[in-house]
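JOB MANIFEST
job_type = single_chain_structure
chain_count = 1
residues = 412
[input]
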Amino acid sequence: MKNKFLIGGLVVLIILLFVGYKFVLQPYRCNNYYEQSLVLRDSSDIENSLVFINKAIDINQKTEYYKLRGELYVSLNKGAEALKDLEIVIKTDTDYTTYLLRGKAFALQSDLASAYNDFTKVISLNDTIGDAYLNRGIVLGAQGKYEEALVDYDMASKYGIDNQQLIMQRGFSKAGMNDFSGAIADFDLALKGEMATFNNYKQRGIFKYKIKNYDGALADIDSALTKGEDYEAYYFKALALSQNKRLDESLECFDKSIKLNANYSEAYFNKSMVCMQKGNSKLAISLIDKAIALNPTSAKILYRKGNILAFSKKHKEAINVFTKVLEITPNDETAYYNRGVSYGILGNHKMALNDYSQAIKINSKYAEAYYQRAISLINVNGFKAGKPDCLVAKNLGFAPAAQMFNMYYKGQ
C-alpha cells in the first residue's frame, strides 16, 4: 500500500514539475530570449537578435515579440516578412511606432502609396517624429514630388534628424528639380563614411556633368569605379570624355557601357556622335540603326540619323528619315527645315519651300528658315523674289542673310 502511495506521489510530482515548466519556466525562458534579442539589436547584431526573438515567438506569440521581429526584418530590408509580423501587431498595437515600422516595410516593397499613408498616420498621431517626415520625404521624392519632399526634409531636420541620409536625399530632390548645384552642395556635405558609396559618387559625377563641370564629373565617376561599376557610370564617363575632346577614351567607355547593358539606346546614340567627330559616318549610321532598333519611336534618334545621312550627302535617304520624324513629332520645325535643305540640295525647291514655310509657321523667328526660303524662292521665281525673306532673316540677326542682303539687295 505504501508503495502505491509512493508511486502516486512520484507521478503527481512529475506532473507538477511539468506544469511548473510549462507555466513558470517557459515564460521565463521566452522573456529571457526577448531581452537577449533587444540587447543584440541595440548592439547592431541584427542577425543574432533575430535568432533569439524567433525562439521567444516559438514559445509565446506576444504582440511585442512580433513587433520586435518586424523591426528586425525592416533593418534587414526584408519587407514582406516584416509586413506579415506588423499586420499581426497592428490589430492590437496602434501606437505611432507600429505605423512607422509598417510604413518602412511598405516602402521596402515599393508600395509607395501605403507607405505614404502610414507615415502620414504617424505624423497625425505625433507631429514631432522626425523619422516619419524623413521617410515620407523619401517616398515623395520617389514619386517625383520633389518640392513636397523638401518640405518634409526641413521638418525632419526641425525635429532632430540631422544625418547624412537626410542631406543626401535632399540632394536627390534638388537634382530632381534641376538644381544640380544645390544637389552637389548637399552631396559634398554627406559623401563620407558609409555614404561614400559607388552610387553616391556616381550620382555626384552625373550632377557635375549636368552643370558642365566635366573634370569634376570624371573625378567622381573614377572614384565610383574604384568601388564598383555599371553601364551608367561608363556612359557618363564617356560623355564627359567626349566633351573634353578625349574621343578615343570616350569610345572605349561607350563600349564598356554597351557591354554591361546592350539595350541602352542612348549609348549607341551618343557613341555615334563621337564617331561623327572622328569622321567615321559609316560607323555612326550603323550605331544609330542599333539605337533605332531598340527605340524605334524616338524622334531624337531618327533626327540624328537624318542629319548624319544629310552630312554624308545621302539626301534622298535623309528626306525619308526626316519624314518619319515628322510623323512622330508633327510640330518639329527643325525636321521641316532640314528636310527642306535636303530637298533644296536635290533641286526640288518647290518641296523645299513647303518645308521652310511649315518651319516658319511653327517658329516665326526661325532666321535660317527665312534665309533658305529666300534662296529657294530665287530658284523658283527669280532673284527679286528672295528679297523679303532675306530682309527678315537679316533683321533676325542671321549673319549670312545680312551679307547676302548687303551684297545683292541694298539700295534696291
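[summary]
The chain has 23 helices and no strands.
The CA atoms of residues 80 and 109 lie 7 Å apart.
exit_status = 0
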